[in-house]
Amino acid sequence: LLQLGQHGWLAGLKTLLLNVSTAVTRDVLITFSPTAGPSRLNTTEKGKAGKIHLPREIFRSLSSQTVRVVVTVLNIQQLGVFKEVNQTAQVLDNTVVGITVGESSISGLQEPVQLTFAHRQLPQGVTPRCVFWDPSKGQAGGWQSSGCVTQPGDKGTVCSCDHLTFFTLLLNPALDGSTAKALMAVATAGCAVAMAFSIFTMAFCIFVRCRFRFEETVRTNLGLHVNLVGSLFLLNLAFLLNSGLSVRAHPRTCGVLGGLTHYCLLCCFTWTALEGCQLYLLFVKVLGIYIHHYLAKLCLVGWGFPVLVVGVAGAIGSYGEYSIQTTDHQIIAHLCWITSKHLLVHYITNCGYFGLIFLFNMAVFGVAIQKSCSLQGTGAVQGYHKPWKVALVAAGLFCLLGATWALAFLTYGISSTAVLYLFTVLNSLQGIFIFIWLVVLYYPKTKETTGSLSYIIRHDKNTTASQ
């Protein structure tokens, strides 16, 4: 064994053998460390190494007077064992702890065996899970968690299991390979549907704007909606091009594609902000508003401002290949986006920019809903504006002002997978929501009304003027 150890074959294996009398009524406590191996509990090592607690129930159930307790600490990276097929989770410190007592297998314990895996604060987006090795899982064996309870903590995670075998602590990433593939499939299908409905929406807005005689305010609103939906169409198109070409793209082509995707995203955010500004002018600054070539100036801001941001970001080399990885550095997706070296650009131009827009738009949304409810309370719009249409207007404005994008701020931590699915589905359906909202809201059903929102705005102006 010493000769084999010198050649490194046993370099990742450390074992402790204890002879324990079954007459002893005390619990057995053992410490283990990936570097020092297992040993008898030493109070000076408490908190610095892992700890094993073997309950007295194990020894009372054995018939012999003395049994041998074997605790083995394995470094699976050096030994090359305990490798699950398509494993995405990372083994803490590459350490597996095996426990055997006597010659027979022990399971179904009333008082569980407790293993405390010592560690520092875990990275964000990682979930610890206590598992054991099941040789019957699959063709080559795999990790199982049945019979084990995980109790995570700041300085260590306690695993309570009702049997003895080889244990470890898996660090599961919030986004694994199968989840990423499913999300990409949902997003791709959703983008295709959103592009189709974006075309329908733009055609509908242009049709009603040219076919019916609306007042100038409503015509401006329709122009704004066309530009917002157009930016959504370009964003979905850029995403489809990105997901299809990023793997095979040349570095320069990938940089251009990343900049294009970033530009379309910023255009979408900017037009969302302009929708909020228009809503503010309509519901707050009700009187005395006239801006020459108003819609043309909005287009200059909505399509021009993102050019400046992307130009500055591109000048410092922010765009290129971006890889989404798990905690064990397995690449699960490639994108042409802002590179990892320039994530500050992403936090400022995307997270920070949208955060400010979202706060402003939600404040305007609150004012708009308050105005609508106050008019409903006076009965001024009865007959023109049914209660279900009030709810539809609110839901449409909520979607139009970019509320679904706010879910991106919640896609961190343990619950991020469910939120990612919700974020992907809702944003994929955003084009459908806007199309239905505009058809119900703006298409004239009678000669008396030319759209519920326009009637509220017009009545609000008249009320303010009379006051």
Automatic annotation (TrEMBL):
Query: Residue ranges of the G-protein coupled receptors family 2 profile domain?
Result: 187-442
The protein's matches in SMART domains, at most eight in alphabetical order, are given as: GPS
* Pfam families linked to this entry: 7tm_2, GPS
Give the keywords, sorted.
Answer: Cell membrane, Disulfide bond, G-protein coupled receptor, Glycoprotein, Membrane, Receptor, Signal, Transducer, Transmembrane, Transmembrane helix
Q: Which GO terms describe its molecular function?
A: G protein-coupled receptor activity
Q: Where are the transmembrane segments?
A: 182-210, 222-240, 260-283, 295-316, 347-369, 390-412, 418-443
PROSITE patterns from the entry? G_PROTEIN_RECEP_F2_4, GAIN_B
GO CC, one annotated term: plasma membrane
Superkingdom assignment: Eukaryota
Ranges where the GAIN-B domain occurs: 30-177
Q: Which GO terms describe its biological process?
A: adenylate cyclase-activating G protein-coupled receptor signaling pathway; cell surface receptor signaling pathway
UniProt xrefs under Gene3D superfamilies: 2.60.220.50, Rhodopsin 7-helix transmembrane proteins
* Entry keyword annotation includes Cytoplasm: no
InterPro entries, per this entry? Answer: GAIN_B, GAIN_dom_sf, GPCR_2-like_7TM, GPCR_2_secretin-like, GPR1/GPR3/GPR5, GPS
The UniProt entry lists membrane topology as: Multi-pass membrane protein
Name where it's found: Cell membrane
What residue range is the signal peptide?
1-25
Protein name, as recorded: AGRG3 protein
